[in-house]
Each structure stands twice: as structure tokens, then as C-alpha cells.
Design a protein that fits this description.
This protein has eleven helices and eleven strands. By secondary structure, the chain is of the alpha/beta class. The protein has two domains: about 70-140, Ribosomal protein L30/S12 (60s Ribosomal Protein L30, Chain: A), CATH 3.30.1330; about 150-315, SPOUT methyltransferase, trefoil knot domain (Alpha/beta knot, 3-Layer(aba) Sandwich), CATH 3.40.1280.10. It has a seven-stranded parallel sheet. Strands 1-4-2-3 form a four-stranded mixed sheet. β5, α7 (about 175-185) and β6 form a beta-alpha-beta unit. The N and C termini lie far apart (about 135 Å). Its EC number is 2.1.1.-. Belongs to the class IV-like SAM-binding methyltransferase superfamily. RNA methyltransferase TrmH family.
């Protein structure tokens, strides 16, 4: 019978229906501060956030590429690197690539030097290079191992010879760097030093231009050129900076007996102010007046050749 049912669900609740007094704290929580507004680049839904991520990705990519292998592509550049005995870890050949004399030569040299030849999908080589202009071939080159400046100085001392070292300032063209390395090796120099920043580094282009001499001549990186120059001074080196209008010329300066550092700036900027002030001697190269200047590699070759001649004369006396 209705009303006599003992089930719990049939009992009428004692509290009345309707709105309760107060907001239950909702209004108070709504008035609570939410803190400062995040920057646009920190809001994941904002376009500025995407630009920030892209910027970080590019910066990260530059750092990674500096410490990873370099990939030289194209049949002529790859063959030139292999002929110059540039260190390499792998020769990549895209499947289905048509054979010609250059490809056959590249594979033959790689096999002779013990460089592994690996066939890859063309799409994979496209992805590695970022384009399709690789001609179906790529050569992986490991990062160059730079010498330490202190070890370079100590190594020269052990030879018992008067050291002859080239320091490059403001040289950003890897071909110039490669040519300077080649000239330094050809005329009996003991090493080349470049700054860590705002300078060309030893890349595949440098290797090719040096004609393989980068494998035998030490190249060192200096964190601070002026401190490096001071260290050479303490080791008994004369610091000679090439500068138009210097107090000496190549005809009047004797570089055949004492240890010497030749400092060469770029054709346009020349030597940095502090580097110039840190040189013991500023020397110019005599040449026709209507010729404005020489690039770094030509200037280095002229000076190194003359100093090598002076040393041969001094050694024969």
C-alpha cells in the first residue's frame, strides 16, 4: 500500500527544493587573480609560439651541423675530394643512378681507400641534402680535428727549427683558408691558426683547395687571437703583421733566422685594430702602385716563399 512501503527510495526527503543561499564559493573563486598574462611566445596557441619553436630549431640545427659529418654531393666535387685524399667515412650512392666515368672513379677510389660504399634510396639522399641536386652521390666527411695551440708550439720546439706559423684574421672564405694551408705546407711552415668565431673553418671546400695538405699540416683554433699572439711572444716569436704602408717591406725584413708568426687579414678589412696593435712589426709587400691589394692566400704565398728563401740562405752559410 502506498505510504506503507518501507523502501528507501519511496521516502520523501525532508529538505525543500529550490536555490540554496550563497554561491558555494564559486563567485569568490571567480574573483581570484590568475596571475600575469603569459608572453605571446609562451602561449602554445599563438603564432609567436610557433615562431619561437622555429627559431630554436634553426639555432639547434646550426649547433648540430657544426659537430656532425659534412655531406659533399655532386659527382665532380666528390671525385675531387677523393682525389685530394679528404678523410671520409662513407660514399653514398642512390639506387638506380646511371653510371659514368666519374661515378666509377669515385667508387674505385673509395674501395681502394677502404671507404664503405653504401647504396641508399634516392628519397633518403634527397632528405639528407635537402634537395635533389646531388646527382645520386654523396660523400660523408667527419668533422676536422683541430690542433691545440699549446701543443702546436711545443711540437715546433721539439723539431729544433725556427718556427714559422700563419695566423689568419677576418678570413671567411674557405677557399682562401685552403690555399693558405697549402702555401704554408709548401714553404716549410709549421701550422695555421684561425679564430673560433667570424672565420672560415676547415670544410670539404677547404680540404679540396688545400690539395690534401690539411691532412699533414696542423690547423689550430684560437678562442682569442690576441692572447694567442701573446703566448707566441712569450715563446720567443716575432709577430709580423701584413699591412699596407708598414714600416718594413718584404725586401727589408729578415725573417730567415728567428721564429716568426705572420698575421694576415682579409683583403677588404685588413687586420683588426687590437691584433694590429699587438704586432711587433707591420710589413707590406712591394708591388705595382696601380694594384690595390692582394687576397690573403696570394699574400701568404709571397711572404712564406721569401722567408723560406731567407732560411735556405741562412742554413747554407
Amino acid at each position: 500500500m502506498a505510504g506503507n512501503d518501507k523502501r528507501r527510495g519511496a521516502l520523501r526527503k525532508s529538505n525543500k527544493k529550490g536555490a540554496t543561499k550563497g554561491s558555494g564559493g564559486q563567485r569568490r573563486r571567480g574573483l581570484r587573480g590568475k596571475g600575469p598574462t603569459p608572453k605571446a611566445e609562451d602561449r602554445v596557441y599563438h603564432a609567436a609560439h610557433q615562431r619561437k619553436l622555429e627559431r630554436e630549431r634553426r639555432n639547434s640545427g646550426r649547433h648540430v651541423r657544426e659537430n656532425t659529418t659534412e655531406l659533399v654531393v655532386g659527382r665532380n666535387p666528390v671525385v675531387e675530394c677523393l682525389r685530394a685524399k679528404v678523410p671520409a667515412t662513407q660514399l653514398l650512392v642512390a639506387m638506380g643512378t646511371g653510371h659514368d666515368d666519374r661515378l666509377s672513379e669515385a667508387v674505385a677510389i673509395a674501395n681502394a681507400r677502404g671507404i664503405s660504399v653504401v647504396e641508399v634510396q634516392r628519397q633518403e639522399l634527397d632528405k639528407l641534402t635537402g634537395n635533389t641536386l646531388h646527382q645520386g652521390i654523396g660523400l660523408q666527411i667527419p668533422p676536422y680535428e683541430y690542433a691545440d695551440v699549446h701543443d702546436l708550439i711545443a711540437g715546433i720546439k721539439q723539431t729544433g727549427e725556427p718556427g714559422m706559423v700563419v695566423i689568419l684574421d677576418n678570413i671567411t672564405d674557405p677557399r682562401n683558408l685552403g690555399a693558405v694551408i697549402r702555401s704554408t705546407a709548401a714553404f716549410g711552415g709549421h701550422g695555421v691558426i684561425i679564430p673560433e668565431r667570424r672565420s672560415a673553418s676547415v670544410t670539404a671546400v677547404t680540404w679540396r683547395t688545400s690539395a690534401g695538405t690539411a691532412a699533414r699540416l696542423p690547423v689550430a683554433r684560437a678562442t682569442n687571437l690576441n692572447r694567442t699572439i701573446e703566448e707566441f711572444k712569450r715563446s720567443g716569436y716575432q709577430i709580423v703583421g701584413l699591412e699596407a704602408g708598414g714600416e718594413h717591406t718584404l725586401d727589408t725584413y729578415d725573417g730567415g733566422t728567428d721564429p716568426v708568426v705572420i698575421v694576415i687579414g682579409s683583403e677588404g678589412k685588413g687586420l683588426s685594430r687590437l691584433v694590429r696593435e699587438n704586432c711587433d712589426v707591420l710589413m707590406s709587400i712591394p708591388m705595382e702602385k696601380w694594384v690595390e691589394s692582394l687576397n690573403a692566400s696570394v699574400a701568404a704565398g709571397a711572404v712564406l716563399s721569401e722567408f723560406a728563401r731567407q732560411r735556405r740562405v741562412a742554413g747554407s752559410n
